[in-house]
Amino acid sequence: MSTENGGTPVRPDLPPPDAPPAADPVPPAVPPAEPSWRTEPPATPPTVTEPTTSRWSAEPPPPPAQPSWGSGGPGDPGSGSGGGWGSSPGGQPPASGKRGMGGVVAAVLAAALLAGGIGGGIGYWAAERGDDSTSSTPITTSGDSQKIENPPGSVAAIADKALQSVVTIEARGASDQEGGTGTGFVYDKEGHILTNNHVVASAANGGKLSATFSNGRTYNAEVVGRAQGYDVAVVKLTDAGDAKLTPLPLGDSAAIDVGDQTIAIGAPFGLSGTVTTGIISAKNRPVASGDGQGDSNSYMSAIQTDASINPGNSGGPLLDSQGRVVGINSAIQTTGSGEFGGQGGSIGLGFAIPINQARWVADTLIKTGEPVYAVIGVQVDMSYQGQGARVTDAASGADAAVTPGGPADKAGIKPGDVITKVDDTVIDSGPTLIGQLWTHRPGDEVKVTYERGGKEHTVTVTLGEFKGDR
After folding, report:
1. What is the DSSP track for 255-290?
2. Shared-domain flag, residues 112 and 253
3. Does one domain contain both 353 and 449?
4. pLDDT tens-digit readout, 103-122
5. Which residue range(s) make up the domain with 445?
6. What is the CATH number of the domain that holds 267?
7. Which of 162, 181, 196, 212 is 20–30 Å from 87 (CA)?
8. Catalytic: 440?
């Protein structure tokens, strides 16, 4: 995100041509050079960062080179073979990024100091010119000053209503040495808040969580459930008896079209209540993101948007033109390392988890406290560089290449087969396969096309399930 202060000094009226020149006018203050807050991780598979407090990498295929968690939104998709997510989610629960709160605070302070410096310089110059010049006549409009009402459906009207239901989440680890800020939104009247797993991961085991509304009221919160693979989490306010909870309306992410208008709301770099706009740039974009250490990765078939999303936006809503949530902002593609906390900012490539998927995950977490994943029962070779997702030739650890008696085994899929399509979706990498499978639920039937020995085969697979994050 660029925090450039776009203010341009407003010059006072110049004196009339026949007026004597002002004595020694003080030249205008030159606004200080502003820091650039843009940059962050691409790589072979593009590095995407989560708009919150850690560093993330998200990458359309091939398998991602481990990125860093963004504030920002299983296995190491970028190395080795045998990514366990093909058969069941792998990896340990996310170890949240160690980006401290200092990065967010520094960003806010930098913006405040720049605004104050420029404003002070302009004010002093204007006062000096006013004292020395002969006269100036301010031009005013007639009539009473009235607030312009925003028409229904306008960005301003949608934002005004939605902001009341969006919260800034602060997470602190048990040691108070890690954590950061992210975003969430009211999911129901019971006080559940929907956000990203990587936003709250640092506080999940003995840490502290708080949620601050746009009116400044802050409430404590606790984790209800987390789904590392989906990068979805539900937290609940614990002391919000006096809170006015208005759930955001949920849309249908399956009904969106490329080119549709979008509105993103969040707390980029800790700047709560920030609203940006854009369009749906693409649908079903394969994205993998992780903590950069290979032990906590997430996969999604994402909504791509050019609405500005930055570290701190993770977990915030992506709205359509009617103010309905169609996605949860989760990751961004950037160009390099940023100045604040090692994170970069928006270059117009943001990724959101489709709300249809997130809603099912959230309801499952609220009901049972643990995630459920749709699986086919194979180990995917994440080092494979060809087109498709290759089933490993040999077992990886305790997992067989093809789970005996599992969905793929029953359908006749064998080690070494290369999966090229799921239904009508082309599969070009392991992460794409996993992300596409996770748009389904256990028990769904899908058509899987694979190649073996140069020949193509298509079979029907009934998806199995895996509970929890391993």
Report:
1. G--TT-EEEEEE-GGG-TTEEEEEEEEEEEEEEEEE
2. yes
3. no
4. 322 222 222 211 222 222 22
5. 372-467
6. 2.40.10.120
7. 196
8. no
Which token pair is 446? Answer: 């899908």
Model confidence over 408-451: pLDDT tens digits?
A: 999 999 999 999 999 999 999 999 999 999 999 999 999 999 99
Task: Let me know if 231 is a catalytic residue.
Answer: yes
Q: pTM for the full model?
A: 0.69
Please tell me the distance from the alpha carbon of residue 438 to that of residue 290, in angstroms, as a whole number: 17
- C-alpha angle 168-296-364 in degrees, rounded to nearest 5: 65
- As given in the structure block, the two tokens for residue 319 are 């709205």
Please tell me whether residues 324 and 427 are part of one structural domain: no
Q: Which of 316, 334, 367 is the last residue of a domain?
A: 367
Would you call 198 a catalytic residue per the annotation? yes
Q: How many Å is the maximal CA-CA distance in the chain? A: 96
Residue 102: other Cβ atoms inside 10 A:
11
Nearest residue to 69 via CA among 282, 432, 311: 311
CB of 281 closer than 8 Å to CB of 40 = no
Which of 231, 291, 320, 428 is catalytic? The answer is 231
CA distances from 75 to 60, 219, 299, 361, 465 (A): 16, 35, 11, 20, 18
Taking residue 441's Cβ as centre, other Cβ atoms within 10 Å add up to 14
Catalytic residue among 76, 198, 202, 296: 198
Tokens representing residue 141 in the block? 């409009």
Residue 167 lies in a domain: yes
Give the CB-side neighbour count of residue 102, counting CA atoms within 13 A. Answer: 9
215 in Cβ contact with 201 (< 8 Å)? no
How does the average pLDDT of the chain come out, rounded? 74
3-state helix, strand, coil in the chain (%, to 5): 20, 30, 55
At 212, which amino acid appears? Answer: T
Q: Residues 103, 229: one domain? A: yes
Residue type, 14: L
Domain boundary among 325, 348, 367: 367
What are the backbone dihedrals phi and psi of residue 88, each rounded to the nearest 5 degrees, phi first? Answer: -165, 150
Among the options 202, 301, 314, 330, which is catalytic? Answer: 314
pLDDT per residue as tens digits for the range 261-271: 999 999 998 89
Q: Please work out, in degrees rounded to the nearest 5, the angle formed at the alpha carbon of residue 319 by the alpha carbons of 318 and 321.
A: 145
